[in-house]
Structures are given as C-alpha cells and as structure tokens.
C-alpha cells in the first residue's frame, strides 16, 4: 500500500477519539405522544368501566348458545361465500381475458353490475327473487317454489359470493397479468392448449400475487356477513340483536359480538401473515435473481 | 431429400409495419439453417410464424408436408382450432432468447411437463428419458434445482432438453445465446453443435457468425423483412454478393 507509512504514523491529537462517546438521538416527541395515548385510553377504559355496562352480563352472554350459534353461522357463511367468490372470480377472470368476445363481455357485464350496486341491495334482490321468479327449475323436469329455495342462508350465500366474485375476478386478472409472457409462450410451444396452460403454468405462478389481497378479502368477508342480518340470516350480530331486543342489554351484547369478531379476525390475520411469508419465501427462492456465473463453474 | 419446412410468399404485418415481405424458404430434412441479420429484420418473426406464435397474414408454410395453421378444402383455407394448432406445434421444439423455463417447477419437472401433461405419456417412462437428456446437456446433477438457482447458460441447456423431450421433428432457436454472459455462450453452442451432428433439423436465428460458419449447412441473411441472400456459410460470411450483406458482415466483424 502506498499510504501504509501514513497510517502507521501517530495521528495528530485532534484525531484521537478514545474519550468520545456516541449518544443516541432522544425522541421526546414519541414519549409525549405515548403518554397522551395512554391517558386517552385510560379515560376510555374508565368510561366503559363506570358507564351503563353490566360486565357480568358480557361474561354471561359471551358463550350463550344463541351467540355461539351466530358465531358458527358467521364462520360458515364466510367460508361458503368466499369459496363461491373464489370460484366465480377465477372463472370470470379467465372469461374476461378470453379472446372470445361473447365470454369477455358477459364477464365485463357481471363485474360492472355486481361492483356497481350496493351489497345490501343485492342481498334484498336475492331474498325477494320470488317476486320476479315465483318458481325455479326446468319446466317439466323439476320445479320448486322460489320462497322454499331462497332461504336466508341461500340468499346470503348468493349475495355475498357473487358480489365477492366480481372483486376477486379483478384480483385474479391482476395475478394472471403478472405472469411473464415468456412463460405463456413456452407453454404454447410445448403444445399446451389455453386451459391446460392456465391450470399448469399461469395460475400457479399467479398465486403469489393473488394470495395477499384474497387474504384481505377473507377478513373483510367475516365482517360483511353482518349485513345479512337485514334478511334474517342468523349470524352473530343478528342473534345479539335478538337477545338485546329481549333483555335491553344493548351495549353488553354489542361488546360480546365485537370481541368475537376481533377474535376471528385476529386468528385470520395471523394465518394471512404466515401465508404471505410462505409465498414471499418461495418467490425469493424460485424467481429471485439469476445466480452468478460462479454457479456455472461445474458446467 | 424432401423438405422439412417450406415457406411460400409469407407476409406478416404488425399494424402498419410490414415485418415479413414475401419470404420464401425451404429447409431440408436434417439441414441446419442459420438466419442472420440486423435486429428488426424479421428473422425472429419468421421463426415464430413457423410454430404459430405469430399468425401469418398471407402466404403459406408447410412442416413435413402438413399445412401450418390452416386446413385446405378445395380452394379455401380454413383456420384451425386452438387444439389443432397446439397439436401442430408438437412438430417443432423452440428455444427462446430468455430461456423461459417454468419458474415454479424444478429442472426435471420442466422437462417432463410436456411429455406427461400434453402427450399424456406415463411418468415412469418419461423420467428416464428426461434424465438421459439432462445427461446429454451435462446437467443431470441439477435435476432438483429451480431455474432461478441456475446460470443463464445452464438454464438455456435445460430449455434445449425440455424442447427435445417432446421429440420434435425440427428445432427452432431464437437467438439462444444473446441473453448470456460471454463466458457462458460456448457451453450452449456446444450442446447445439452436438445436436446438429446428431442429424436434427435446426433453424437458428443467431448473431454468432462463428457458429454459423462452423455448423450451418446454409446461411440466410435477412433485412427489412426480406431474404436478401442465401448461400453456404462461406458464400454469405466470406464473400457476400449483396452490398447490404457486405455492410452487415463488416459491421459485425469490426
């Protein structure tokens, strides 16, 4: 080294640093903000503790049969409606990207209609379908009265699932668009048809883009089921309301429902976090940057 | 020798851009043809028309005496369905500039995907063949690796093995070494050289004039969507007759 004689020489006094200490920056603002928030929280807790809330009632109804049945219905509906939404989402995403103009415009119309009208209105439409179609089925083969088929469960399932499908279709479409065109060409040249290519090459690679927003939508679906209380689907909020109409413990029953919603959403959030971690990991491993030529030395 | 590929007056437009202008070409069984020319000259487009990644706007192409993309009935040509086009594509294997290995599959999965899923052959008989192909391109030890774990040269050799696994009649190479670091080019060219020696019909779009000189039976020079000159490697690379070809060769070699 050309400058080795410089580094070896004794530095002048101004550069001696042995007595100096690093001091981290002080965050007075954070301490102040935290103190204010704790104060505000304490006041809210005090208000709830001293307010018109009978906490023993909350405990008493927390595991009441009506509440647990409602909780089960909420979870069941979340699973069923989300499953329907996913299937419809994938089907309509494929349709909207199809070269067939008929399929494409059917999908465009579906998304336009179900994203363009309020969910509540759609639920009411399904629930009152008997006003337009008094009977359902294939004439001559089998028929049934619409009111027998369109139970609160069916109306909620169709309403939530079909509405969800319109949103999920856009998510799936985004995922499909994220797949590199070279992958599609490679699939074509080994003789794959469009559907085989979607199933084997495109959708598996689109998953890592699709999964995070769908996880988000599952969480949102848990809470959306509460809208179905207006068409008498016995989910947790509706059952809580039924109880407080009888015993007038409004706040207590709402708190019970809120705690259950938070519990379910917390569990799902943890699940979503783990799923995303899993997919980002395989993203790094499978489509990370190309290895350097060093890896090719064995060749 | 009969013709493997015959192209007659092929025309292709991208919007107003006339990418191929009355291109006619014949490639014999077992022939190795290199197509050279500046970028935008239509050489990749011609390759992509042969395996129907692009649809031709006029003219006709036959592979092994089968009309590509259409069914002839009297004087009318009827466009084939997607499934029929997919079946026709099995005649040719293609290797891309950017490799395009399936990113979510291991090396072995990449190679057996076509034979198992498309040709519906039994996995048990396909895997030994796939391993033999990996042996042939010198990468048997990488069978469980993912494409992202491999160098460009290794990925391209896997891509060649994947195409060969479909047992195609001819192989199309679209600038197979253009995306590679310079020191990785030779390992890919050496696999291609072996393939040419084995008698495979090959159409190679390339900038590797050395490879063309050594391996090709015939070289085609294209420019502005037309075939400017065709001849033996010596004709085209050492004593080109057309001014345009002379300029191109001079520019590449300088």
From TrEMBL, chain A:
CDD domains: TM_PBP2. It is found in: Cell inner membrane; Cell membrane. Keywords: Amino-acid transport, Cell membrane, Membrane, Transmembrane, Transmembrane helix, Transport. GO terms for biological process: amino acid transport. One of its GO terms (cellular component) is ATP-binding cassette (ABC) transporter complex. Residues 71-272 form the ABC transmembrane type-1 domain. The keyword Isomerase does not apply. It comes from the Bacteria. PANTHER family: ABC TRANSPORTER PERMEASE, ABC TRANSPORTER PERMEASE PROTEIN. Part of the ABC transporter complex GltIJKL involved in glutamate and aspartate uptake. Probably responsible for the translocation of the substrate across the membrane. Belongs to the binding-protein-dependent transport system permease family. HisMQ subfamily. This is Glutamate/aspartate import permease protein GltK. It comes from Phyllobacterium myrsinacearum.
Automatic annotation (TrEMBL), chain B:
GO terms for molecular function: ABC-type amino acid transporter activity; ATP binding; ATP hydrolysis activity. Residues 5-249 form the ABC transporter domain. The keyword Repeat does not apply. InterPro entries: AAA+_ATPase, ABC_ATPase_HisP-typ, ABC_transporter-like_ATP-bd, ABC_transporter-like_CS, MetN_ABC_transporter-like, P-loop_NTPase. SMART domains: AAA. Keywords: ATP-binding, Nucleotide-binding, Transport. PANTHER family: AMINO ACID IMPORT ATP-BINDING PROTEIN, PHOSPHONATES IMPORT ATP-BINDING PROTEIN PHNC. Belongs to the ABC transporter superfamily. This is Ectoine/hydroxyectoine ABC transporter ATP-binding protein EhuA.
């Amino acid at each position: 080294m050309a400058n080795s004689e410089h580094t070896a020489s004794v530095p002048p006094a101004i550069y001696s640093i042995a007595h100096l200490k690093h001091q981290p920056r002080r965050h007075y603002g954070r301490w102040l903000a935290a103190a204010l928030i704790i104060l505000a929280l304490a006041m809210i807790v005090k208000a709830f503790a001293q307010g018109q809330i009978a906490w023993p009632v909350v405990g008493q109804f927390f595991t009441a049969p009506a509440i647990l049945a409602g909780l089960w219905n909420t979870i069941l509906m979340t699973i069923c409606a989300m499953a329907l939404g996913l299937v419809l989402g994938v089907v309509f995403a494929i349709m909207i990207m199809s070269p067939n103009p008929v399929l494409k415009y059917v999908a465009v119309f579906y998304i336009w209609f179900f994203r363009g009208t309020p969910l509540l209105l759609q639920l009411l439409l399904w629930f009152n379908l008997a006003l337009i179609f008094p009977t359902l089925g294939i004439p001559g083969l089998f028929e049934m009265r619409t009111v027998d088929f369109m139970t609160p469960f069916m109306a909620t399932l169709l309403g939530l699932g079909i509405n969800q499908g319109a949103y999920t279709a856009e998510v799936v479409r985004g995922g499909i668009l994220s797949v590199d065109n070279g992958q599609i060409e490679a699939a074509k040249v080994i003789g794959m048809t469009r559907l085989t290519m979607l199933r084997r090459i495109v959708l598996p690679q689109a998953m890592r883009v699709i999964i995070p927003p769908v996880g988000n939508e599952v969480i949102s679906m848990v809470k959306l089921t509460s809208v179905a209380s207006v068409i008498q689907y016995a989910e947790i909020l509706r059952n809580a309301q039924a109880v407080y109409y009888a015993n007038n413990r409004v706040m207590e029953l709402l708190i019970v429902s809120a705690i259950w919603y938070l519990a379910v959403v917390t569990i799902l959030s943890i699940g979503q976090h783990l799923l995303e971690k899993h997919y980002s990991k395989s993203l790094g491993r499978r489509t990370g940057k190309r290895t350097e030529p060093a890896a090719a030395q064995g060749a | 020798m009969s013709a493997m590929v015959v192209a007659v007056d092929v025309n292709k437009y991208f919007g107003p851009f006339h990418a191929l202008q009355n291109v006619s070409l014949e490639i014999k069984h077992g022939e190795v043809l290199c197509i050279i020319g500046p970028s935008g000259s239509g050489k990749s487009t011609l390759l992509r028309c042969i395996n129907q990644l692009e649809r031709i706007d006029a003219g006709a192409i036959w592979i092994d005496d089968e009309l590509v993309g259409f069914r002839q009935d009297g004087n009318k040509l009827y466009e084939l369905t997607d499934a029929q086009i997919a079946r026709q594509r099995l005649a040719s294997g293609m290797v891309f500039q950017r490799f395009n290995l399936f990113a979510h599959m291991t090396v072995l999965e990449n190679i057996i995907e076509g034979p198992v899923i498309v040709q519906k052959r039994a996995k048990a008989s396909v895997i030994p063949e796939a391993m033999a192909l990996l042996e042939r391109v010198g990468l048997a030890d990488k069978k469980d690796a993912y494409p992202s774990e491999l160098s460009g040269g290794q990925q391209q050799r896997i891509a060649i093995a994947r195409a060969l696994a479909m047992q195609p009649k001819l192989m199309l190479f679209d600038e197979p070494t253009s995306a590679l670091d310079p020191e990785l080019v030779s390992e890919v060219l050496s696999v291609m050289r072996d393939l040419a020696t084995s008698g495979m019909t090959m159409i190679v779009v390339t900038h590797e004039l050395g490879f063309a000189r050594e391996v090709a039976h015939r070289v085609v020079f294209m420019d502005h969507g037309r075939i400017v000159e065709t001849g033996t490697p010596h004709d085209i690379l050492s004593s080109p007759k057309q001014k345009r070809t002379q300029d191109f060769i001079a520019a590449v070699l300088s």
